[in-house]
Each structure stands twice: as structure tokens, then as C-alpha cells.
Amino acid sequence: MQNFTLLIHCSDQKGIVAAVTNFIVQVEGNIIYLDQNVVIEQNVFFMRLECDLSNSKHTVASVREEFSSTIATQFNMSWEFYNQGTKPRMAIFVSKYTHCLFDILGRHSSGELNVEIPVIISNHDDLRPIAEQFNIPFYHVPFSKDNKIEGEKKQIELLAQYEINFIVLARYMQIITPKLISIYENKIINIHHSFLPAFPGAKPYHSAFKRGVKIIGATSHYVTEELDEGPIIEQDISRVSHVNSVEDFIMKGKDLERTVLARAINLHAERKILTYCNKTVVFH
Amino acid sequence: MQNFTLLIHCSDQKGIVAAVTNFIVQVEGNIIYLDQNVVIEQNVFFMRLECDLSNSKHTVASVREEFSSTIATQFNMSWEFYNQGTKPRMAIFVSKYTHCLFDILGRHSSGELNVEIPVIISNHDDLRPIAEQFNIPFYHVPFSKDNKIEGEKKQIELLAQYEINFIVLARYMQIITPKLISIYENKIINIHHSFLPAFPGAKPYHSAFKRGVKIIGATSHYVTEELDEGPIIEQDISRVSHVNSVEDFIMKGKDLERTVLARAINLHAERKILTYCNKTVVFH
Amino acid sequence: MQNFTLLIHCSDQKGIVAAVTNFIVQVEGNIIYLDQNVVIEQNVFFMRLECDLSNSKHTVASVREEFSSTIATQFNMSWEFYNQGTKPRMAIFVSKYTHCLFDILGRHSSGELNVEIPVIISNHDDLRPIAEQFNIPFYHVPFSKDNKIEGEKKQIELLAQYEINFIVLARYMQIITPKLISIYENKIINIHHSFLPAFPGAKPYHSAFKRGVKIIGATSHYVTEELDEGPIIEQDISRVSHVNSVEDFIMKGKDLERTVLARAINLHAERKILTYCNKTVVFH
Amino acid sequence: MQNFTLLIHCSDQKGIVAAVTNFIVQVEGNIIYLDQNVVIEQNVFFMRLECDLSNSKHTVASVREEFSSTIATQFNMSWEFYNQGTKPRMAIFVSKYTHCLFDILGRHSSGELNVEIPVIISNHDDLRPIAEQFNIPFYHVPFSKDNKIEGEKKQIELLAQYEINFIVLARYMQIITPKLISIYENKIINIHHSFLPAFPGAKPYHSAFKRGVKIIGATSHYVTEELDEGPIIEQDISRVSHVNSVEDFIMKGKDLERTVLARAINLHAERKILTYCNKTVVFH
């Protein structure tokens, strides 16, 4: 495969699209996907482009270099360039909840997630049997007030050792440390069990039940230092009624959580997400 | 028609359902709908019952009286008893937004709302032509800091004059006064243009846009003294994406607002709603 | 636990609800759920009732016997009576698709499915490793034109041996034989990968793509002799657009299939479904 | 306003995007929207582009001419070119149903439909008062077996007289004649009251009720000679349950019909739809 994905983000200027597409012509590529968007109020330009080089004498690596030194510089772009032949490597962080973990591992086994999963890290040892069931290395890295620095150090070491590109928090019940967030900026995906910004923080289903909402939700977002305030990737909802107890909310919510998290993982893995101003641009 | 609807709400006790259904047998009624629900944690019992008296020698009025003096007293019930032959009389309050007003009047003309609409009241004179277009009396009752008491007095007089049973705020941009709320407790339906409890108060679409949500919503609820905190009747949502501007949010939101409000009106008109603990029980 | 669930289905008659609820009073039960519905055109009466006997000197078994010989006979009812303490035993039939199987087994491991899963039966040997991963007996029962009778015989033996109450076809790619259907009438749940009655039969995603629909769906239903014509239990849908290929339809569809099938399993396991006239009544 | 919308559709070739965007640079335009899609199996290329000429010395008309004689010819494109300053003129065809008509006229009055509505045509005289209520010319053009040719002739005359660009069938209960379809190819929008391809033809709610579906739908599509087989523009769905009668289906369906039809009108009016192979490409 000689396909690549290019994500661009810069201030809007005349002639950007022409410049990029001329560049593709020059390197003998064939555009198989191009979506471009301008947020006029903020004069921001976004583009996602997929290109096939199978009839070109250029390689993905050489095109990348060429792009970097010409167009990218000229228009002062933020850009990301991915070889579609390389699967991103994803670490899973879990605590004690099993539903998202089973879902991710089941989907991965079924070939529905376009990622490698080299490692699972947990602050508890409880879910080790599930990791073993799916033959994935599992590390118990306890994380408490007393050993916070040690725990973070161990996490970062493991992530480096397994060459992890992004992290999924599959209902991981710990705050991520600022240092880890800064290393994996917009690369840590959380699933929050409410329709954010409604019910941030702990026990959202209990709060939703108490408020008497008719719809509950789940939200996947990138982790930032502000709890439950990071860029939203995907949300979905489910109807509830007065016949549902808090336990029903939790059970229905699990379905939302796993589905929304899986969608976020795939969007990230397929490089369909750009972030700016604490928001995401999600290309289809 | 000799049908009635009975709504019951009391502390849960053994034998309630048997007592009520035996009562229906006694009065020669035929149960055509019965839904009953217990919230175990709070030991609360709810029931909605529809009964046909067409083969009975009792009348709706006599059954009501009998029920009141026997079962209702015995079980210390909160209850409501409605003759299905009588349409509730609904007042519409509007300001300047036209979309919900057109929708309500169009549906009413099409026979989709089981209510009478004897009067429209507004703090502006702008929408008078729409009222005239649909031949409904329109009153301009200005409402400012200076004439608040006078305005409220005028509103209450009009509501009494037109024998109004409940009020719909069709994007009415004024706070309802506590006195009016107390007269029409759980009988004033508002439509809020967000997925409550997210984005209460002013400009929710702008806040939703800023937060970068992927789903927007609308919420109909009964008006209480706490702004946007009353019992939720119905909610619905619509997907948005990065290509949508605030204006798109507003436009998509209008569709939610009119649909959710219309559903709430019908649920209320068909006596399918009970309220307790600032929540609604919505029977299907 | 001394709770039971009662499902009733008979022609509508005056006094049924009173008779049933009086019976519950007699046996000192406490009604914790009652939903009742009449289809007037067909004069059919449905009821679902949950009852708590914890403060009664009667047992579930004795109440059942008493009910059978009195009310049930008197009103000529079709009825089902379940001890809530006994989990139904579910067999899974699979072929080669893994996504529904992983989903069911993951949910079961997470405590989300209120069933026992004593056995998995397949016409291929491919998914044996998954069964082993979850420690569930797996039987390869090939099923071709030549050994149809033998295959059916083996299936029926296994179902008897494992005391199976109902069967789930987790994308099982074989026609169920009439004999097996007659043994498990309204007890075999299939998931069809379209929004029935649109696109019955083979390759529905390809047909949906060709037709250019904007929404795809999945349908769980009880298996009857008419292919994809049995009583529908649950359906759900997902939006698609022109950017989606058939492969995208299939991928999105997998999410629908597993969710809709899991909901159907739980509805069946919790005895929330009645069937009549090739339709289901699904209590909430 | 000097904005235009360009829709392109041709066989996929290297360098198309570059050629088009270079052209925009040449005419000093600023691309404010560009979405491009390739259906690889069929080697088809689609593009939608919005361009702002406010800082250009070219006019929309001159750019159009230039485009026609250069790029469009060179790549053998099917293309449409619209001045955003000109609202399309829409005729409404109705019979006796009022809900879609009220909805369209209410939305139009509220400024939610970006069209002119110069005329309403009906095969019955019943809805004339609604047209009068909204001050829109109404023509009663009866349409029966005997006067088919005469009726069609009158319709075509009126459409010409009012310079109609596209037609909306707001639950118009007549077959459109082949001649009219050929004049307004992909310019007649119908709303069908089912989730196509399920339940084409007459009485779809009755069929849906009989089949026991759990979800009903509505479908807007362009009219072709094959009944209910034209390119689908938009669909939406609503949940139903065993408590709902056919009348409930019809009532819930009305909500779907008006919403789905309004979306289709806006997508068409904003030139967001391309058609090919009896399917639509709907740009967002």
C-alpha cells in the first residue's frame, strides 16, 4: 500500500487548496478523498486528504519530506502526515469495569479496530484474567496519593517500551497526570458516562436519575488537564423513562459507553480528527 | 363519549390495584388502559387508567364523586379525574419567535392537537398578524420592570376570562411570575432550546457551539420558580458537526423545539403526565 | 428471592384485572409491576405482572398451581409463569461471524445478560477457539443437504442434554428446520442485518447500498418457518451517507446487529415479550 | 452577494481538483466550501464547491461562462452552477392532507426555507383556504382518468407561467405523468410515508402495523417513473410499540413526514444534492 493521509490546519489564505492539489499532481498522486472546511469567524482552514501513490514513482516518505519543505512551510501549516500502511499502537488503561474492555478486545479480535493493542495497564489487578484470555500483556501499576510519581514514571516507561501512539481510558477511574497528558496531547481518549457538559464528574447516572432526564448519554473526548472539559470526539444518547431505575440507567449507559468509545477509537485510528480551540473537526 | 382518565399517586400499599379495579367493576366500567408503576426506593405508587362507561348506567360525574369519597380517601391518594369528552383549554404565550407558534397553530388546524386554543398573549405586538391569520384572539400585554404587577394582573385576568386550563410558552422570552406559577402549578409548559441540564439560561446554542458538542437538544418542562429547573416532560436531540455554524445550530434547533413542544402539549392534553419530586411520570 | 413474573394473553372480558389483582391480594403478594394493554380491534387483552411474595406464606410454586386452577381456567387464558430466581438457559448457534458471539460472551462475562450459556453449536469448527477462550462447551454440528436429518437430530439432542430454554442465532447462516422451530416456538431469536421488511434474505447491506438508502438497520425476531417473517422483537438504525462504501455499511451494521440482538436476549430472558398474530408485545 | 455554488460530476481523472482550484485562483475567487468524493468502484468523481467573488473583478456570470468553455469541457463534466443570490422558485402540489402544507408555509413565513413559493396546485379545491391564509395563488387542477391530458397541460402551463424551478409533492395523492417528470427530472420531491424500500405504495402505516415493526419511517425522494423508486434524499424514523394503534402510527408519521420533507426542500434549495445511478450524493 502506498496510500497516505494528510491533515492540515492553518489560517485561511487564498490559494491553499490549489497549492495542495497542484502538489499532489506534481508527485503523481491520485486524490481519493478531500474534505476541506473553513471556519469563517476564526479564519481557520482545515483539510483532510487521502492520496494513492500506487502509480507514482514517489514514496510516502519522500512525499512527506517534500511537502514539509515546500507547501507546509509556505502556508505556515500545522499538519500531520500518516502512512496508511502503519497501524497506530494503542494502550488500554482500565480499572475494574469490564464492559468497555471486553468490547474493545472483542472488536479487535473481530478485525473491527484498525489498531495494534500491545499492552493493557491498570491500577488494579482485577482484570488481568481478561487480558490473559485475549493474550495481551497486562501491567498492574497501582496509583495512589503516595506513589503518584512512581506510578506515572512506570506508566510512561511502559508506554515508551511498547511504542504507544495513543491511549484509551476504558472506564479508567483515575485522574491522568499533567505530565502524561503533555506527552500524549490529544492522544488520550476518555469515555465519560454522561452527555457532556451535563453531569461532569462522579456518578452522572445518579445525577441524571435525580434530575429526571428523559435521555441519557455518553461522551468520548480527549483528556486535558480540566476534568471532562477536553475536546469532544463523539456523543450518543439513549431514551429512558420513569420505569427505569438508576440501575437501568447504568445498564443502558454501558451500551452507549462501549459504542461511543469504539467509534472514537476508530476515528482516531483512521486519522479523521483534527483539534483546535478545544474542539474537534471530525471528517467523515 | 363516556370515557374517563384517572391518574393516581400515593404511597405504595398492598391492595391498591385490586381496590381500584374492583371499583371499576362495581361501576360497570371497562378498563381500556391501565399502567401502574412503583418507585421502590421512595415507596411511591403511580397509576393511569382509562375506562369506558358506555355499557354502564353510571356517569363520569357520578363515578368521580363515588371514587373521591371511597377509594381516594381510603388510600389517601393524590388523584386527577378527567372526562375525555372535554378538551383542555390552552393559552399560548409568545414574544417574537414565530416557528413554534406557526407549528402549534398549523397542527391545531390539522387536528393534531387535542386542545382548544382560545387566546394568544404576548409581551410584544409583533405576532398579532399570525394570530389573525388563524383567527385567534391576541392580546398585547407588555411586561417590563415598571409595569410587572400590572402585566401579571392583566395576564391572570385574561386566563380567567378565557377559562384557561394550561399555558404553553412558545419561546416566550420573559420570566413567569411566582404568582402565576402558583396558580398554574405544573400547568405551564416551557420549551428550552438545549438538552437540559446542559446549557440552562440564555444563548444555549452559542454555548453548545463554543463547547464543541456533537449533539444538540431541546427540552420541554413544567415551569417552576427555579429557571430551567422544572420537571422535564420530553427531550430530543439532533446531530451537529464541525461544518455547522451557530446559525445552523439555531436552525436545526428550531426543528427540535417545535417537535418536542408539540409532543409535550399532547402528553399534557391527554393527561399522560404525573409529577412528583420535580420529575414527571410520562405514561405511554 | 420469592418474585415471579406472570404473562397473560386472552380475549378481553370485563373484570379480568380485578380478578387477577384480587388473586394477588389473596396470596398475600405485593404487585411491583403491572402493565396491561387491550387491542380493541381484536378484543385481545395482555398483561404482564411482577409480584413479590417475600411477605407471604405462599411459595411461587403454590401460587402458580393456584393460579392455574382458578383464574387462568375461568378466563380461558394463555399464560406463562416464571420464577424470577431461575435464569433461562440459552444456546448460541453460530457459523463464522465473530462479532455477535464476542459481544454476547463479553456481556455475559460482565454480568449484563441474565441467562446461563451452557453450550455453543456451530455448523463450522472455526469459532471453537472463542468458545474455549470463554470456557463454554462447543459442538461442531455440520449441516448440509446430505446430513440434514442427522444434523437436526444432533442439535435436538444437545439442546435436550443441556436443558436449553431458548436459542440465539448469532449470525448463524443456516435455515432452521421446521421440526426444531416447532420444538422452540417463539424461542429462537434471530438477528437479521436489515431493517425488516426491507431487504429480507441474503446480502441486505449490498441491496441497501444499491438502493441508496440514507439509513440502515437491524432486526431481531423470532424464527418462524417463513424466512425473515417472524414476530419482530427489536429494531434499530444507523445513518449512512454517500461517502460510505458497502464495507462501511457492513461495519456500521455490525454495531447494530450486536446491540439489537443483545436487547432482544435481555427482553426474552426477563420475560418481557408476548407474541400473538405474528407480532410481539414488548413490555417495558 | 457574489457567491456561487458549483456542483460537478464526471468520471474520475487525475488532476481534476487541481484544475478546478487553479481556475478559482485565476478568477480571484475564495473557496469557502469544498467537498469532493470518489466512488472508486464506479470511477465517479463528485464535487461541491462554494466560492466568494467579493474580492474579484469577475462576476458570477462571467465565471460561469469561463468555466463552461474551459475546465467543464476539458474534463467532460456534468455540472451545475448557481448564483447564491437567486432563490429557487418552488411549486407545491397538494391533495387533501394539510399537515405538510401548513408546515411548509409556516417555515417559509418564519424564514426557514430558502425558496420562493409562487404557486400551489391541487387536484382538489379543499385546501384553497390555507393558500389564501398565507396569500399564495392556488389553482384547482382536477386530475382524473378522463381529463389526464388536459390536467397535465394545465399543470405544465402554470409551472411555466410561474417560472417554477422545482416541485414539492406535499402528500399529493396522484401519480405524476411521465411528461412532467421528464421536464422536471430530479426536480420533483415526494414524501413517502414509510421507510423505503419497506412498504412502497398505498397505506404503508397499515402495512407497518400489520407487520408489527418497532420503528416507522418516512422517505423523501425524487420522483421517477417507477413509483417510490426514485433517488432517496432523506429518511428518518420514529419508535413505535404495541401500545400504538394504526392511528398513532399515522399521527407519529405526520411528524416524520413534515420534518423529512422540509429537510429535503432545504437540501435541494441549497444545491447540496447530486444524483447519479438513481442515488443521491448529499453534501453536508
TrEMBL record, chains A, B, C, D:
CDD domains tied to this protein: ACT_F4HF-DF, FMT_core_Formyl-FH4-Hydrolase_C
Signal sequence segment: none
GO biological process, one term: one-carbon metabolic process
Annotated ACT domain residues: 5-88
Pfam family, one: Formyl_trans_N
Cited function: Catalyzes the hydrolysis of 10-formyltetrahydrofolate (formyl-FH4) to formate and tetrahydrofolate (FH4).
Protein's UniProt name: Formyltetrahydrofolate deformylase
Gene: purU
